[in-house]
Amino acid sequence: LQLHHSGRYRCGGLVSFAVSLSAPVTVTVHGVPLSGVSLSAQPPGGQVALGDRLVLSCAVASGKGPLSFSWHRGGSGAPLGTGPRLELSHVGDNDSGHYHCRVSDGDSVAESVPLNVTVLGERDPRAGGGL
Fold it and tell me: In a 3-state reduction of DSSP, which class is residue 53?
């Protein structure tokens, strides 16, 4: 069922060449609000070595599908990705920050608590990029 299936319904049939209709009934479909949006990281805690792989996973404790996911870092408006997983195969100096996932069921939106991702072994920007 979807929320738009709410309404008045009746059934009918043909009895001895006459149409017979039931009394109408009202059906109300209630959505299950999104809740319990959380994210986890591999490696745990969101601490990853420079050049290694980081996988973030988003989970929803309750909610009614279909669900859509988007990934964000800091206050950026453009999503980094969609789907319940975000994989950064070779993290770089600029990948540190607060990540969160946003989930929508078409009627409501919920976000996870941000996870602070720290890239270990970042190059010192003052060191320069000598050749």
Answer: coil
Give pLDDT tens digits for 76-92: 678 999 999 999 999 99
Q: The pTM is what?
A: 0.68
Strand segments, DSSP code E, in 1-131 are 7-9, 12-15, 18-21, 25-27, 35-42, 47-49, 54-62, 68-73, 81-82, 85-88, 97-104, 109-111, 115-120
Average pLDDT value over all residues in the chain: 85
Half-sphere exposure of 92 (CA within 13 A, CB side): 2
> Phi and psi dihedrals of 5, rounded to 5?
-80, -5
Beta strands (DSSP E) in 16-74 are: 18-21, 25-27, 35-42, 47-49, 54-62, 68-73
Longest CA pairwise span in the chain (Å): 94
Q: Decide: 45 and 119 in contact? Cβ < 8 Å.
A: no
Q: 119 is written with which tokens?
A: 């890239």
Domain 35-120 top-level CATH class: mainly beta
Q: Which sign, positive or negative, has the C-alpha torsion 99, 85, 71, 31?
A: negative
